[in-house]
Amino acid sequence: MAAVADFYRGKAVLITGATGFMGKVLVEKLLRSCPDVKTLYVLLRPKGQSDVTERRETLLKAQIFDGLRRAAPSQLEKLVAVPGDIMQPGLGLSSTDKARLQEEVSIVFHSAATVKFDEALKVSVNMNVKGTQSLLNLAKNMKRLEAFIHVSTAYCNCDREVVEEMVYPSPADPKKVMDTVEWLEEDIIADITPKLLGDRPNTYTFTKALAESLIVNEKGDLPVAIVRPSIVTCAWKEPIPGWIDNFNGPTGMIASAGKGLMRTLLCSEEMVADVVPVDVPINLMITVAWHTAVHRPREMMVYNCSSGTIRPIYWHQVLNWGIQELRRTPMRNVIWYPGATFTNSPLLNNFWVGICHFLPAYIVDAVVMLLGKRPILVRVHKKMLKASGCLAYFLTHQWTFKTNNVSWLLDQMSEDDREEFHFQLKDLDWQSYMATYCNGVRRFILKEDDRLEQARRHMRMMYYLHHASRLLLFLLAWRALAARSSRVRAVWVALLGLLRQLLALRPVARLAS
């Protein structure tokens, strides 16, 4: 068996954030490619009316586990739900569960985090920073611990143009920030948040930087490594090409553009879109845990998992290849013919948002209300505007993420391991991947099947309607100009006369032939 998979033989693994996008892929990959792993403990909190047992069953019903369910259903029994909450003191663990984890666990993957860019500072600190501290404290008493892998983000140092694989000085003292949000009132915290964030655009990047600093200060002798993915997108090769389970980031852009809703976006199209397919950071994390445990680096290693310096794709390519695929394999019941433009001018983008998004939305909603139905289009566009506002900073800035440690780790792996735990981006065909991505959004997010005949007929109708409306708007604009200018009016009359002559010549030409 390959060295990486063999390392996990008989080991117990603890995973936080297992119900998240990356967490699901991590669980599936460990069960499939490390078949002799002993146990996967997943920290779950009760949610609504569902206890952790029900949440475990819901997790395993995800489509990515279908292959395991068919080929090796016994592997799924290795997933053990542990009641807990990353935001509670001591992770909310019972004394029995705490003792069991400290006795058995060898590898920890910490991927739980709030990824909402506009999350309130107190929530973000408690989950991303305090939760990390609680997990570190638990890990310090794990008798068998060999590797603690913390999932950060490449953008935790977005105040720098070049980001090395190192932990930079913290933007603030993590403990002081934790203490501050603990006792201050919510409205006061909201008032001081902009000053605390400084050059960082949101609480997510800020608290992720604090968490890294906290790890450096409090890890002691723990075998810790940090993996920093950039923008994580749908699966490239595994477990299912195109698999995605949320609207975050480019996924929401593809869904709204595919339905014909998104017509303009604030984005610098010549900049690098530093996206990575989800299976790339997952395979890297599994391999980093192996290397951390087996080779015991003298210093804590940091791995920037990004594509920009290895296999770059630019935002204008994302737009062009995406729109091309959305027209070729359309979504059902599109509102308008897919097409969008990027602009790096906030003023111009706001103008087009008003003209192309909200003006039609208000008109359609007014008609819908007159018909006695519930209007939704304006509300949808407001949500789109809020989501695009959160993304704007990352769509209009560019960074260089150094990936020397990632390249070095590849060299340490056997050929079999490089194949099974693939995270080499040099052979990624971005145009093909964008087609996979668009179809993944249609299939897994919008739950549409591959029967495209009706969707294509509707798309053709939208195509003719789109161009007819453009022609009508042009003629109306020209007619308005003609009413105001004698020169434009003369050109208008000449064009109409030429058109009449051409139409009159057609029967004569037909008789002559």
Could you please describe the fold and organization of this structure?
This protein has 513 residues and is of the alpha/beta class. The protein folds into 2 domains: 3-244 and 271-311 and 399-423, NAD(P)-binding Rossmann-like Domain (Rossmann fold, 3-Layer(aba) Sandwich), CATH 3.40.50.720; 453-512, no CATH class. It is 53% helix and 11% strand. It contains 19 helices and 13 strands. The chain has helices spanning 3-7, 21-33, 52-60, 66-71, 95-104, 121-139, 174-183, 186-197, 203-218, 250-258, 279-295, 315-328, 346-370, 377-395, 404-412, 415-420, 430-445, 453-484, 486-512, and strands at 12-16, 39-44, 79-83, 105-110, 147-151, 162-163, 224-229, 231-233, 264-266, 275-277, 301-305, 341-343, 400-401. The strands form 4 sheets. It has a 7-stranded parallel sheet, sandwiched between helices. A two-stranded parallel sheet has the order 6-13. α10 packs across α17 (430-445) and α13 (346-370) packs antiparallel against α14 (377-395). The longest helix has 32 residues, at 453-484. It is elongated and about 90 Å long. It starts with a helix and ends with a helix. 40% of the residues are buried. The model is unreliable at 507-513 (pLDDT under 50).
